[in-house]
């Protein structure tokens, strides 16, 4: 459920992009869109605006329920507001297409530098109260997140600006919108599953060691 909540603005971006013509024809949104713009540009503007609103709703809803802000949501809100605002103002999809890359690479830098600032990598600060792991495992986990965020950002950049350059601009935009939801979500789900498998192995080993210690046995 949390994963779906984190992807809430992206899901709405996807839905509103493909339903933009309906929204333009049947809601007040049509009064805000220049009819001279190509269909895919108009759809991008509509979807971007809705995603920005969804991000504000996401942050507000989380604060109402927990009385705290989640940094990931705040980072995402800031980036989508700035880059999305420029896309809406200029009618240029390139800025919103940069958003996943900027966000993922920002997280990669945060996770990387956390290994040199403070006494714990950020993944250990986030999960250390729930599970106990050897220091080398925490380091491996943190580095794996750095690699994941970098690859995700690079993949988005490739699909947005270098994939299928012979296709029409509208078709390339459709491809990127599909990748933004299904591709990046698929990468995230796959990585989380691999991480869970890796963690379960080390957690079970730790539990065995603890049980042996409690029984006075040598591990």
Task: Please tell me about this protein's structure.
This protein is mainly α. It folds into two domains: 1-92, no CATH class; 93-209, no CATH class. Helix content is 78%, strand content 0%. The protein has nine helices and no strands. Helix 3 (20-26) crosses helix 4 (39-66) and helix 5 (71-90) packs antiparallel against helix 6 (94-113). It is elongated, with a radius of gyration of 21 Å. Residues 205-219 have low confidence and may be disordered.
Helix content: over 70%
Domain tally: 2
Mean pLDDT over the residues: 88
- What is the H-and-E element order? HHHHHHHHH
Structural class: mainly alpha
Question: What is the 3D form?
Answer: elongated
Flag low-confidence runs: 205-219
The Cα radius of gyration reads 21 Å
Query: What is the straight-line distance between the termini?
Result: 38 Å
How many DSSP H or I helices? 9
Could you give the count of β-strands? 0
Give the amount of beta strand, in percent: under 5%
What's the arrangement of secondary structure elements?
Blueprint: H1 2-6, H2 8-18, H3 20-26, H4 39-66, H5 71-90, H6 94-113, H7 122-127, H8 135-161, H9 169-214
Helix pairs in contact: 2-4, 2-9, 3-4, 4-5, 5-6, 6-8, 8-9
In short:
The protein is mainly alpha-helical. The protein has helices spanning 2-6, 8-18, 20-26, 39-66, 71-90, 94-113, 122-127, 135-161, 169-214.
